[in-house]
Every structure is written in C-alpha cells, then in structure tokens.
Protein: AAA domain-containing protein
Organism: Kribbella antiqua
Amino acid sequence: MKPAKIARLLDRLTERGLKLAQQVDADRPGQSPVELSALPNELRRGDGSSAYSAPGAARYVTPDHVKAERQLAKAGYARGAAVMSPTDVQAFVKRLAADGLELGDDQAAAVRGILTSGAKVETLIGPAGTGKSRVVGALAKAWEDPDLWDGEQRRMIGLAASQVATEVLAADGVTAKNITRWLMTQQRLTDGSTTPEDQAWALRAGDLVVVDESAMANTSDLSQIQAQCDAAGAKLLLVGDHRQLAAVGAGGGMELVTAGALTHELTETRRFVAAWEGPASLRLRQGDEGVLAEYHKQGRILDGGHLEAAQRSAADAWLADHLNGLHALLIVDTNAQAAELSAQLRARLIEYGQVDDERTTWLASSGNRVGAGDLIQTRLNAWHLNGYRGNTRAAFNRDEFKVVEVLADGGLRVAPLIRGTRHPAPGETMVLPASYVRDWVALGYAATVHSSQGLTVDSSHLVATQNTSVYALYVAMTRGRAANTAHVVTQSLSKEAEYGQTAAAAKRTPLSVLRGAFELDDPQLSALQAAAESAAEADRLRTPAELLADGIALATAGRTATWLDELTHAGALTADQRSALAVEDGAGTLDNLLRRVELAGHDPGQVLTEAIQRRSLHDARQISNVIQERIKQSGKYDPIGDTYTDRLPQVDDPKWSAYLANLAAAADTRTEELGDQVAAELPQWAIEAFDWPPTDHGPERDKWIRRTGVVAAHREVMNHDASDDALGPAPKPGQVEQYASWRAAWRALGRPEADRAEAELSNGQLRVRVRAYEREKAWAPPYVAEELAGTRQAAERERRTAALRLAEADASDDAATRERLRTEAEQAKALATALDARAAELQIADDARAVWLAHTAETRAVADRAKLELDARGIDNSDDGPTPEELLDSIDADDADADEHREVTDEHELADVAEQRDTDIALAVPADEFVEAAPVNDQPASKEAEPDAAASDIPDAEIVADDNTRPAQASAEVAEAAEDEAAEDPAGLESQAPADIREVAAGEVPIAESDTPRVPSADETAEAVRRAQRALIEIQHRRAAEEHHADAEAEARAEELARWHADDTNAEQANTATATAADHAADYPGPVMELGRYDDE
C-alpha cells in the first residue's frame, strides 16, 4: 500500500475510534467552541485551535474501561467479609512474637485491621523497606489457621503481575500464581473445567485473595479479579505502593481502590542499615526534592560526567561489591544499556579468572556470549521446561542463574540462585535448551529498574539520566540494605550530536539533574482520576488567572514602545536615546513597572511622559534605569482593585479587550464560589483571620463571604495551603498580577500588621534586621556538606580500589605483581578508614550547623521579610555608607587638617569642658540596641573563672585531627556535655564563651564554602569542629539565659500576684474593720461621766 493510502487509512481509523471513546480532559477557560471564536488571532494556530492546547495531548477512554474503573472504585465500600474477633487477633500477634516473629506497631495494626474489618476489598500500602512481606506472611498464617476460625479451614491465595513476584510470595508461605495464569484458570472454570488442577484454584466463600505489587497490575486485570472475588464471596487485599513504578498497560487501579477502600499503610522502614536512610527514603517517596541534599551529603550522589563515564563508575562500584560477596544491582534505563554494561563486566570477570571464555555460546537477543561462571537472566516464562532433560522446575521471566556448563549443542546447564543472593542453590541444576538460550537469555550483571522493583539486595547502583523519573529514582534508591548510590550523567548529548562532541556538552550539577526527575513526576492515573483532576484544574482560579496574566502581558506588550516612539516624535527623546532604550536590559522591566503604575490607578503613559520630561537624559548611562528610578520616586504605586475585572488594563484592540474581560469574569465567578466554599467548610485560617461568620443571612454575612473569597482566591492562585497562615508571603516584585492579588487579599484581611509590619519600617530599620542576621551568620558552624560528600565518596572509592586490587592480585601469575597489588589494597583500606574518621569529625560540624539553623530561624525569617520589602522598594541592600571606623578616621583627618587654623582655647576653659563631658558620660544611659538574637553573655565573665577556661574544653586542632577513634555520635555528646555544663556550672560556662561571639567570629577569617565535593585537610576539619563546638556552647548559653529569664519572669509574676492578693486581702480586712467600727459607732450612745470618780483629786 502506498504511504498516502496508509496515512489516509490511519486517519479514518482514528476518526472511527474517537467516535467510540470519550474525552478525559475538561475544557479550560477560553477553549469552549464559543470562546474559541472570540480568541485573538495571536493566540490561534493555523487550524484555529488555541495556542494553549498542546497538540496530541488529548486523552480518551472507552466506555467499557470506565465501567470497569467505576466497579473498582465502589468495591471498596462493600462489607460482609469474614471477621476474626479482636481478642483472637491480639492473642495471635502475641503468639507470633513468642515464636520469634515480632511485628512492628504499624505491622501489627495492619494485621489487626485486615482480620477484623469485615471489608470485602482493602489495600495495604507498603513503602519500600517497611516489611509488607512480613505482614502478608503473618496474614497467611492467621487466615489458614482453623483454630482461629472455629475449626473452619480457610485459604489465602496470592497473585502477582510477574512470575518473579509470584515466587517471592511463595517463599513467604503463600499459595501463589501469576495473574495471567490465574485469570486463564478462572475462565476455564467458568467454561466448565473439572480438572483437579483447575478445581484447586476455584474460589470459595471466605477465601482471602492477595494481589502483591498491585500497582503494577493493569486496571482490567484488577477489575476481573475483584469481580471473581465478589461473585465467590472472597475477600480481596491489594498490596503494593502506588508511588513506585506503575503497570505497563492502563494503570491507576490500586490508587483508585485506595481512594474509597479501607487502607492500611506501613510507616516504619526496616530495610536500611543506615539510620538516616529510612526517613530519607520516605521523603523521596513523597516527592520532596529537598531530600536530595541529604543523599548528596551522605556521598550517595556522584557526578558521573558523560554517559560512558557514569556507566563506568557504576560498573566499577558494582564489580567491587560483587567481588566482596555482596548481592548488588546495577540499574540502567534500557535493556540495550544493560547488555552493553554486562558485556563490559563479563570482560573484567574473565580477566579476574572468574568466568570461562574458552567454551561459550551465543546470545542472539543481546549480541553477547556466555560461558561457565556467568550470571544470566531468563526473559520468558517457559513452563514446558519443567521435565525437560530431568528438570524439576520451569524457567520464568527475570529468573537468575549461574552457568555451570556450556553444552555441546549450545544449551546451558545452570544453577538457580538462592533468592536475594548471588549464591547458587546447592545441588540443584537445570538445563536450558539451545533455542531458548539463543532467544530468551541475557547476561545478568545489569538490569532495568522495572526488573528490579520488588527486590531486596545488599547494594544498588543507578545510572541516572535526565530521563529518570522520580518513581524510577525511588525504586532504584531503595533496593539496597547497606547502600544505594546514583551515578548521575551530568553531561548529556542530544541524539543529533556528532561523535566527539562529548567534551563540549553543557555541564550540570548532579542535584540539578535529579531535580528534573521531580518535574517528571507524572503518575499513571486511572481514567476517572484523570478526568476528576482535569475538571478540578479547569475549575481552579489558577487556570483563568494565569491565562489572564499571560494575556495581559501579550496585550500590553507593544504599548510602551508606542509611547516611547510618540515621545521621540514629540522631541522628548532623541533618536539615539530611543535606539539605546530598545537594546538596554532594563527595557523589559519598564513594561512591568508601568503595569504596576496602571494597577495603582494611574495613567501609565502619562507617568512615563512626566518621568522622561522631568529633566534631560543626555548624561544617563542606562536610560531605562534612570526612567524607572524617576517613576519610583514620583509616588508609591500600590495596586488597587478588589476584583480581576477592576484590574483589567486599557486595551485598544476590541478582541483582546473582550478576551481579557471573559477571563476576568471567570476568575471573579470562581472567587465568589470560593467565598461560599469557605463559609461552608470554615477552615482554620478563615476563622483565625475573620472570626466566625454571621449566622443570619444579610449584608454582614455577604461581606464576610466576599472578603474570605478574595483571600481564598489568592491562596488558590499561589497554591498556598497552610492552615495556620491566611495569606502567605508577598510575591516577588516582578510578579505584578500576583502581587495585585496579594494586595487585594491583604486589604480584605484588614491590613494585618503581622503581614505588613515591614511596610511601616524605614529603609534603615529594614537594613538593621537584615544585618542582625548577618551578625548571627558570623558565628555559624561552617557549611561542610560538600566536604562530607567528598570525604565519604573518597572513602568508598578507596574501598572499591582495595577490592579491585585484591582481585587483580589473585588473578596475577607474577609474585612481585601480586605483592605490589596487595600492598596497594592494604593502603587503600587504611586510607578509607582514615577518611571515615574524618567524615565523623565533619559530621559534628554538620550536626552543629543544623542546631544553629534551628536556633536562628526566627532571626532569619525576619531578615528575609526585610529583604523582600527592600527589594519591593527597589532599594539596594548593600552597604551605602562608611562604617563607624571609616567615619571616625574621616573625622580625625578633617580635624588634623583644621588644627593649624583652629583657635587656641585657654587651659581653664578646657578644664570646664572636660568636667562637663565627664559629668555627661557618667549620667548617660546606654540605648537599647536592636538585635534579633541578643547574646546571653554580654556580661563580663566572673572574676573567679580561669582566663583560659574556654580553651581547656575545646580540643586543639591537632588533637582533633589526630583522633581517628572519635565515634560518629560525637556531635550528640558535645551537645549533651554542653547542656550538662549549663545546668551544673553556669558560671563556668560563662567563662568559656567570649564576651560577644558575634564580634569575635566577625574578626576571624571565614571558612570558604565549597560548591563541589572535596576532601578537606586535617587542619580544615579541626577548625570546622572547633567552631562547631563553640557555636554549640554559645547556643547552650543562650538557652540557659532564656530559661533563667523565663524563670525570673515567672517568679516576678508570682510575687506580683501574691502582692496583689495580699493587697486585696488587706484592703478587704480594712474595709471590714471600718464597717465594724461604723456599726459600733452607731450603737454607741456616747461618753458617760461617772460622778464622784475624781472627787479625791
């Protein structure tokens, strides 16, 4: 058939297929048929479609697939499965612990929940290394124990997408089958099969069906499994992790079920040897790209350079682990790369005498040869091999073997490897026929990430490229117990690049390459989830707001140039000045500034004219900068307008004006909807910011809804979801439209001082806040992340070198060469040990820096807000004046110049002046100095303290450098020791710390921060530790002072309350006494004279 006819046939078939499917994606604002007709020509393609719609990006789904997904989605709500009593479950868990199988808290909770829920469909989510296999094994033991079911025998059946995963289930004691074969069996049973083999797999009421790695099962298979379970009255448990690699076919089924079903999630990682790696892996799973810094610091992210170098680095690392007896994985992107690296490693193993290259056979699938000693992997399930030439088992896809013998016909005698190791099963071999070997066997030294998922090994080495997704990165970096390392390709060539251009390729950092993996975070969603997300995204305010911001930029792009041309024509600008403006870098920001002027309610063209005409520009070096500065100085241009419609620009083109008005109306409608939504849901931020809404419908409630809607609109535009912060930080000055939205929300909140305090400060006050943090930075423990990374990487390189040199020595026939290689190996081991000790010292500094960062967080946040405000004002935060010392030197110089002309004053007059000055100084009170974190030790040290007490507790640099026995937890011990000293001897600690650490540190030579991994010298390491220990002591001083101050305040408050109570009591007693006296006075008739009493006198 001719190419033209093929193209026409494909078009026709596509048209017919689309008629049978439905579109998943919702129309975005501006893309409905009516709106497309009003689209400006600049936003149209040649076919009339919108420029914002990606060609070929539309997604479609068949009605049958939607039906299957809906069936899965609602299955999670069903109840009625077998239930075990909580008492029996608790006793079962205790019995497991007594038998040596102790479950973690999260594992035990999952077992209890699944056995007692009664749900027909549940999910168990197990991130890598959390021990979901142990939970499945425990469930199998409980479900199949008749004593726990009143004598009734129940069954647990395991299913998995791959045969390798099926074998893993079987190893855990579960009767298992792969999904494809199980579904085929169920179909035969439906068709009436009565064979014992099929009948053994017939479902019964009360059975538990477990689908392992269910995220890798396609939705159609899961739907069929659920239907079979539902029809038989069996319970279905989906086990896996939807944050790992998804199904090859239509996926998203597990996540779809998880959204509605009872879900149990394991939270504690148990696989990793290093304590930091478990929490880091969970952060990686959540897509937190900040965790890359932790992996880098631990030496797990290597700069591989170009692809070949990265592959060589990973291959060397794998080979060293293999030679050391570890089960290691070498993970690459494609099967072709795996074949290439496997061939290279085979050649190295031949050199070391571990693989035979004399008698080999050909592997047509990869183009390699294989001999005795090679590790191989089968690529096709071959059930027919069970019984072939005495075989007792079949060969399955991704099975691993070690070649024992190459047969004369090209077949192989192989030994299956013990699962999870590289060791052959003792006494067990099987034969692979030559035809199978030729077409379905590959060398097993390297593999793809898909074939690695589900495996647990000793170490893993990934060749990471710019195409590596976050899911692949997560899987690859969680396979190894002891180590998981990424060898990153940082110099990538395009497919069109010619040979020899590698050196000219742009160089990136390893972290920047891996951050791209998070941008490729594109999970495989079900059709229902994809449709829901698309509809939600189309309804979000962010969609019309971003289209509106882009449209405004396009619609107003040429008007500044038009105004400048008009001013040139009018003579306000010369032709040379206009030409200079057209090429200056600042010309682009002038558009943004004039838009800010317009948003503030001014005429941007008029403001521009006035700025240019204010005075001549003939001596301006950067005309655009001068114009902008004049505009900024002419007024404070804060945006006005509470709605998007209020903030529309003046546009002459009616089509653009109508397009922008439609988008603004859509944004305002969504704002109103958000206000109603907030009133219904009453989130924390709204209650704290606006109080509770009026209950009566009327103007006050409408006002409450309108104001909260404006704030909720800005939150949605900026994707700000903090529950305890209504507004979030102000956008950067260049984000003109977003800043206008922020200002509107700020006004709706009632101009809160907490969010706008910086606006009321002067430039000098803002600079003080910035410099307060700069002073804190002076005594910060040094940043040693790159040194840590470099030292740990160097230690691993030396260990790798030692393993390779020993292998080379064993393979050498020359005694002198063997001795030399073994000496080099021992030297490499010794150097690795020394580097480990240095890394432990550097860890002290790194831990101390983390403590310092937490301690100064508030000061840093204040400084950051001050910087933002200075940037918004267009103020350069650099020093703009002389230092006090420079100012004093200048005054002294002026005084010296004026001395020869100065009038001489009599001595008695100077004495009067000196006396008055001494009096003034004596009466002076020092002013409070604004600092963000005042030192706790401004007071002089006690006189009893030894002058060099501080030095006595801080190790000398030489001592620290030579102490290779210091444990890794030294940093924690330093902190604890500092806390103990602060509690037991505050006076002693006071004598150790300098009068003001900020002043002392400011006078020291700063330690330069490296931006690439490096190994520091012993002296550099010692100095870093010294400064770290000093910082920890200072922090303990400050904490002790803060606690003392808090205690003093509490004591003073208690005394004040006691005094108030005493005063109230005394006043009450006095009032009572006064009242009593008054009562007595009322009853008293007055004095009575006793006659005759004084008669004798």
Notes: The radius of gyration is 39 Å.
